[in-house]
Amino acid sequence: MVGPVWMEGAPRPISKVLVANRGEIACRIFRSCAELGLGSVSIYSESDRGSLHQQTSDESVFLPGDTLSETYLNIEAILAAAEETGADAIHPGYGFLSERSAFANAVKAAGLVWIGPSAHAIDEMGDKISARRAMVEAGVPVIPGEELPLENPDEMVDELVRAATRVGYPLLLKASAGGGGKGMRVVREPRNLQREYAAASREAATSFGDGTVYVERLLEKSRHVEVQVLTDTLGNAVHLFERECSIQRRHQKVVEEAPSPVLDEITRERMGEAAVNAAKAVDYEGAGTVEFLLAEDGEFHFLEMNTRLQVEHPITECISGVDLVVEQIRVAAGLPLPFTQSDLTIRGHAIEVRIYAEDPANNFLPAIGPLAMFRPPTGPGIRLDTGVREGDEASIDFDPMLAKLIVHAPDREAAIRRMKRACEDFVLLGVTTNMGFLCDIMGHPAYHAGETTTDFIDVNWPDGWTTPPSDVAPFAAAASEHYGLSRKATTVETEEGRGSPYNPFLSLRRSFP
Amino acid sequence: MIELRDSNNRQWQITIGSSEATCDGETIANEHTFEIDARPNRLWVDGQLAHVVKVQDDWWVHIDGRIHVLSIDEQGLSGSGADGGMTAPMPGKILEILCGVGDQVEAGQTLIVMEAMKMEHRIAANASGAIAAIHHDVGEQVDAGATLIDIDEEQSN
User: Fold this and answer.
1) B66-69 contacts: CB < 8 A, separation 24 or more?
2) What is the CATH number of the domain that holds B10?
3) Candidates A373, A429, A479; nearest CB to B16
4) A409, A470, A506, B102: least CB-packed within 10 angstroms?
5) Would you list the domain boundaries of chain A?
6) Phi/psi of residue A449, each to 5°?
7) A209: phi > 0 → left, psi -120 to 50 → alpha, else beta; which?
């Protein structure tokens, strides 16, 4: 028999999972693999040698090369790594190759199990035009918008201006293949249109290898509400309620919560139903997310469907009690969902904050440096999904997100208090992060009041954010200098990996687990 | 005496053992008590636990639920260098240079497009004037704080 006992009788049994990703999401998937009794394989590039994700997996395969296309985006090398280690399934995580139908097809063609939706579903939903069409057929309202397929901005001027006029200002330029705020630009006035289009198109080409840009009306004072769906290969489909992810900077999410503080039961049901219908319309398999923009008037508009696991999936896991990665793997193996819609209820309230290596006092620009101290908070209802630990470096090579802090509590107010305390207890020294800013969001009356619209940060910090001054910290620093409390924060490179001299992973001369 | 600068740019002069200190030149009381913890990088200030670590010339302090960075001021290192030199706000790659040496530019005009962590950032002129020098080429990787462009500021007639 292939795989653990619970896999018995599965049409596509799995015994070992390769994760074609890195960082916190790879670590999170490996954790579920371990609990399921499955073997795990990581891939890593030179700059990830000795990283947490490499050491969390049972086996790891080094991918040579300096660029992403040689490593984490290299389909051929990833399939070779699976063959070399005997992995029989591939989980793509989020980002990287997760929404490339060519990868899904290549994995299946290699005789491996693909832990994700079909290439057809990825293409249908990945293409904003066909996704919109599917939504219109499913009776879900969509935002006015148009796609501009040409890639040379100089030849596009007339068409661009015409499209922009039809859509109306203010508008949003987004990469058709995109997500995560990359290649996304706000244009408030026609005179900035061409410049922003060139930038969006270029970012799209760098990040996604596709320079196609989509023009869409910007709905202000709206909320970003998304519904988690889960479907199996036997025709069963459920939704696991909504997440509200309105608090964003540069169109990247910073704070997410579930359930939404404003959704009523009726809208929740309508939205959930619409999301399930959307998934069914493309024969979706596994875990997916249907994003909506909830306008001020209470109407919701389809934004897009993300055909992968989301960064913020843990808050759904908290309130539903469902391990989404476990269900993804079970579905990929061909097993039925172990529950129906009526089995699912919302329990309590969950919040996630994304900890970025960036300077909130300086326009959220990325920061780099050593994680000289990294001591996460502990206690009931606290979860940390991290790809780094003390002694690692925040480097320029990858996305600045270091970790996600998640709390779960009986109600929203308790969850906010818990998150505020957790952020305050987090000792993260050596690299500038948004931790202090997160503390202030959790302490802000507007957040407590649930006024979480997408312009939350601009509205509440119109002149930017600054670190609240401390009259004690300078004395603590002076005393530390005076008494010589300095422990040099250095990073050493050894055969065993990378970390500080105090890193127990190194001093034990073994790697975990 | 230890001279420090906090992230709000206040200058501190503190002597441990003295009952007085100065902040921005003003004398203030120093009535704090310190106790060093048996474990490394821990210090008790007035009975409150602080985590501290020094990275290069900066002390990183976690106290009272907040993280603070205090820079040790080197003696004789003064002057902000605000002489029209424009520096990179973060480490990254130069994507585009939108001006040439000798060009007249206006404050706020985008001069350089940089990329860091797959995001584009625009570097705008911090003063009006003529471009005196461009220190980097397209495609170059630069460190945070690297001088990118010098501008000869317009004389205010």
Assistant:
1) B66/A424, B66/A436, B66/A439, B66/A467, B66/A468, B66/A470, B66/A473, B67/A427, B67/A428, B67/A429, B67/A433, B67/A435, B67/A436, B68/A467, B68/A470, B68/A473, B68/A477, B68/B6, B68/B7, B69/A432, B69/B6, B69/B7
2) 2.40.128
3) A479
4) B102
5) 5-115, 144-217, 223-460, 473-507
6) -80, 0
7) left
List chain B residues with CB under 8 Å of A207: 118
Give me the residue from A250, A366, A466 closest to B90, CB to CB. Answer: A366
Q: pLDDT above 70 covers what percent of chain A?
A: 91
Taking only the tens place, the pLDDT of each residue in B23-50 is 999 999 999 999 998 888 999 999 999 9
A450/B112 Cα distance (integer angstroms): 39
Cβ A474–B89 below 8 Å, yes or no? Answer: no
- pLDDT reported for residue B107: 80
Tokens 């996600």 found at:
A404
CA of B153 to nearest chain A CA: how many angstroms apart?
A: 24
Q: Which domain holds residue B123?
A: 85-153
The fold of A5-115 is Rossmann fold (3.40.50)
Q: Which of these three, B40, B72, B104, is where a domain ends? A: B72
Give me the residue from A372, A435, A477 closest to B70, CB to CB: A477
**B50/B10 same-domain check:** yes
ipTM over 0.85: no
Asked if residue B83 has pLDDT above 50, the reply is no
pLDDT band at A277 (very low <50, low <70, confident <90, very high): very high
pLDDT at residue A492, as a whole number: 45
Chosen for mutation from B8, B46, B54 (greatest number of chain A CBs closer than 10 Å) is B54
Pick the CATH number of A223-460 from 3.30.470.20, 1.20.1250.20, 3.40.190.10, 3.40.1280.10: 3.30.470.20
Whether residue B120 sits in one domain with residue B89: yes
Position A215 scores a pLDDT of: 87
Q: Residues A55-75: pLDDT tens digits? A: 999 999 999 998 999 999 999
The one catalytic residue among A28, A223, A308, A330: A308
A22 part of the active site: no
Residues in chain A with CB shorter than 8 Å from the CB of B92 are 366, 396
A502 band by pLDDT with thresholds 50, 70 and 90: very low
What is the CATH superfamily name and number for domain A144-217?
ATP-grasp fold, A domain (3.30.1490.20)
Q: To the nearest whole angstrom, how far is the Cα of B67 from the nearest Cα of chain A?
A: 7
Does residue A165 sit at the B interface (CB-CB below 8 Å)?
A: no
Same-domain status, B112 and B139: yes
Arithmetic mean of pLDDT over chain A:
90
Residues B96 and B65 in one domain: no
Q: Does A69 touch chain B (CB under 8 A)?
A: no
